[in-house]
Specification:
By secondary structure, this protein is of the alpha+beta class. It is built from 13 helices and 13 strands. The strands form 3 sheets. It has a 6-stranded antiparallel sheet with strand order 3-2-1-6-5-4. A 5-stranded mixed sheet has the order 8-10-11-13-12. Strand 4 and strand 5 form a beta hairpin. Helix 2 packs antiparallel against helix 3 and helix 6 runs antiparallel to helix 7.
């Protein structure tokens, strides 16, 4: 016991004490009976020697056991730390993760998987059968296929949701490697919402737009400056009013193009996008009337009705930005509207829905938008037509944000019982005069 629980010195000291006691006992018997006591001395010597050997072996085994226990404790601490790190990483992954065995039982799932599958996965006690929900049958079949083929699998699977339409999910499976034939592999299933992939692609497109805008600025600004300067010099030598009017038109449109380039550059700079611009104080109805009439004259579009119902409403918006906003919305409406009278309508209002802010609406009788188009209406480079750049509605949204306004879309009828159409509405920020009141 001393060899197991104590140090080497304690164990040897204890063994020596016991050996001395045995020798003392043999000596006591020799004093009592000196004739036949040699056997006791031999027995005491052999027993003492055996006790020393046992003490040495027991102490060495105890030291080895202590070292193994320390190593096991360190390994256990490392395993616990690694498990905590793995749990934290899995918990914070944007991808859903399911750990499935060969019987189709789910042993682990992260919150992202619960959000993607949308069937109350987090409330199910682990382990649970993956095929318990009809919406997950395709996932269970892919897991069985992974175990059968012993190779990674990848598919895009529509997963029904408890609410709303089905969600397109990219599913990838991997088998855990194992060197022990008595231990079965596990199937780790990675779930990724395709909407997140699309959002990532859109972010990359936005970054590409920023780089493109910088290049466009260097390439376009110099020719624009040359055109403006040449037209100004040409105007000095012209006396014919028609020619001077033409050069004035060249200068005016070159300046407008320069402002457009500057605005696109501003949109591409995230820092400048966050700055709220006060803009100009505009009376909404007259400004909308002038811009709508100008668009009708330029496009020769028939059937456009204008109904203005926001008298004396001042809004904070740059006049040129309002022009670009209306041109983009009207061009978008004309692309899908019919040819009858009232197929495109421009309206203003002071009380649209629950908002009490001045609003501008551009309504058209076009066909309903597809759900995929509706989800990406205001995103850069997204267009349902190959001829469109996909920047019009995106720039409208950014211009509205810059001036504290909001833009949206809804499918509705202008009057009860009337035909439904596509309406883009802009709710303006209150003017400085209204704020002070």
């Amino acid at each position: 016991m001393s060899a197991v629980l104590g140090t080497m010195t304690v164990s040897l000291g204890t063994t020596a004490s016991v050996t001395l006691l045995l020798l003392a006992d043999a000596g006591w018997h020799w004093l009592q009976q000196p004739v036949d006591s040699s056997g006791r001395f031999v027995q005491a010597a052999l027993t003492g020697t055996g006790l020393f050997v046992v003490a040495l072996l027991a102490h060495e085994l105890a030291r080895r056991l202590t070292r193994e226990e320390a190593v096991a404790q360190r390994n256990r601490s490392s395993a616990q730390m690694q498990a905590q790190v793995n749990d934290l990483v899995i918990e914070t992954l944007s991808e859903g993760v399911l750990v499935i065995d060969a019987e189709g039982l789910v042993h682990a799932a992260n919150p992202a998987a619960d959000a993607i599958l949308g069937q109350g996965l987090s409330k199910l006690p682990l382990p649970f059968a993956l095929h318990a929900q009809p919406a997950w049958h395709a996932l269970a079949a892919l897991a069985r296929q992974t175990f059968a083929r012993r190779t990674p699998q990848s598919e895009e699977i529509p997963v029904a949701q408890a609410r709303g339409a089905a969600r397109e999910v990219r599913v990838r499976t991997r088998l855990t490697p194992t060197s022990d034939r008595h231990v079965d592999s596990l199937c780790v299933m990675f779930l990724q919402d395709l909407r997140e992939l699309e959002a990532r692609i859109r972010t990359e497109k936005l970054a590409a737009m920023g780089r493109m805008s910088a290049a466009v600025a260097h390439e376009i600004r110099n020719p624009l400056a040359a055109i403006t300067q040449a037209s100004a010099l040409l105007a000095e030598d012209l006396t014919d009013p028609a020619h001077r009017k033409l050069t004035s038109m060249v200068q005016h449109n070159a300046q407008r193009l320069a402002r457009i380039v500057d605005d696109v550059l501003d949109v591409s700079r995230a820092r400048q996008q966050r700055v709220l611009s006060l803009g100009e104080q505009l009376v909404l109805d007259p400004a909308v009337q002038v811009l709508a009439d100008e668009w009708v004259r330029q496009t020769q579009r028939q059937g456009v009705l204008i109904a203005l119902d926001a008298p004396q409403s001042d809004v904070r918006f740059d006049a040129e930005h309002l022009r670009r906003l209306m041109v983009n919305l009207l061009d978008n409406a004309a692309r899908y509207a019919g040819k009858r009278e009232g197929s495109i309508q421009v309206l203003t209002s002071l009380h649209r829905g629950t908002t009490q802010r001045p609003s501008l609406m551009v309504w058209s009788d076009g066909a309903p938008l597809e759900p995929a188009v509706k989800r990406h209406l205001f995103e850069p480079f997204f267009s349902s037509e190959s001829r469109s750049s996909g920047l019009g509605l995106f720039l409208c949204r950014e211009l509205c944000r810059r001036h504290g306004a909001t833009i949206g879309y809804e499918r509705r009828a202008l009057v009860p019982g009337g035909p439904e159409g596509n309406e883009f509405f802009v709710s303006f920020a209150a003017s400085e005069n209204r704020l002070t009141q």
